[in-house]
């Protein structure tokens, strides 16, 4: 396991990953950071960290769904291109077989059929060449569609990782809230650093905890509404 420090929206996070995955994790973090900065530029107010990460997660998840739909369409186009290539290849094989038949007939029929047979051979050769060109074009289209699909799948994978990281941060914030609430209600243990203070600040911590709980509840409602619209 390796530890990697990444930065999202101006805040540093230390995350663990498998050996060799450091660059991939940094790339995902850069995607999340870029989306977070874009949202911050668009918003007129500065959202709290949990709301910002949730907005980033929803945005990336929406793009992932769109990419999934696009990937299905690309798969259908690839199948069509491959079917067209197979049809052209079949036509080319038929034309080549006909050429062979005509060449055999020319050899057996003598000179009286030579001119007509040669003209038909030329026409068959032209048809075969056209079929070859069409098959080559269909093959190029299939390769291009396959490359586009592979790129889309890579983007989906990156977005899935980015969404997972953002949702993990949101879960950690909720866990910190529950730990802070437990400390503020008098379990005898000190509150986490996020809500640290002496006993005289208990009311203030409780009020902050309640505010954060209300925000999380509001965000949860927004998630439900968003998923319902989808």
Radius of gyration: 32 Å
Largest sheet: 2 strands, antiparallel
Strand content: 5-15%
| Order of strands in the sheet with most strands | 1-2
Low-confidence stretches: 188-195
The end-to-end span amounts to: 37 Å
Helix % is over 70%
Overall 3D shape: rod-shaped
**What's the count of strands?**
2
The helix/strand series, from N terminus to C terminus, equals EEHHHH
Number of helices: 4
Tally the structural domains: 2
pLDDT averaged over residues? 76
Structure report:
With 230 residues, this protein is mainly alpha-helical. It folds into two domains: 1-46, Double Stranded RNA Binding Domain; 47-229. Helix content is 79%, strand content 6%. The protein is built from four helices and two strands. The chain has helices at residues 22-42, 49-109, 114-184, 202-229; strands at 2-8, 11-17. Strands 1-2 form a two-stranded antiparallel sheet. Helix 1 crosses helix 2 (49-109), helix 1 (22-42) crosses helix 3 (114-184) and helix 2 packs parallel to helix 4. The radius of gyration is 32 Å and the shape is rod-shaped. The chain starts with a strand and ends with a helix. Residues 188-195 have low confidence and may be disordered. It comes from Paralimibaculum aggregatum. Residues 183-202 are annotated as: Disordered. InterPro entries: Cell_div_ZapA-like (IPR007838), Cell_div_ZapA-like_sf (IPR036192), Cell_div_ZapA_N (IPR042233). Keywords: Coiled coil.
């Amino acid at each position: 396991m390796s530890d990697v420090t990444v930065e999202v929206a101006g805040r540093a996070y230390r995350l663990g990953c498998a050996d060799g995955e450091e660059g991939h994790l940094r790339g995902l973090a850069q995607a999340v950071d870029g989306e977070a900065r874009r949202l911050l530029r668009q918003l007129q107010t500065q959202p709290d960290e949990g709301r910002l990460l949730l907005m980033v997660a929803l945005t990336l998840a929406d793009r992932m769904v769109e990419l999934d739909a696009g990937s299905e369409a690309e798969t259908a186009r690839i199948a069509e291109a491959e079917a067209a290539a197979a049809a052209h290849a079949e036509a080319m094989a038929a034309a080549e077989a006909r050429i062979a038949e005509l060449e055999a007939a020319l050899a057996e029929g003598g000179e009286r059929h030579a001119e007509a047979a040669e003209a038909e051979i030329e026409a068959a050769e032209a048809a075969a060449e056209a079929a070859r060109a069409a098959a080559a074009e269909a093959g190029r289209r299939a390769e291009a569609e396959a490359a586009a699909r592979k790129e889309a799948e890579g983007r989906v994978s990156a977005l899935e990782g980015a969404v997972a990281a953002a949702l993990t941060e949101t879960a950690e914030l909720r866990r910190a809230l529950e730990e802070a609430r437990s400390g503020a209600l008098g379990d005898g243990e000190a509150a986490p650093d996020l809500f640290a203070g002496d006993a005289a600040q208990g009311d203030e911590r409780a009020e902050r905890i309640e505010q954060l709980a209300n925000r999380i509840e509001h965000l949860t409602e927004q998630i439900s509404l968003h998923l319902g619209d989808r």
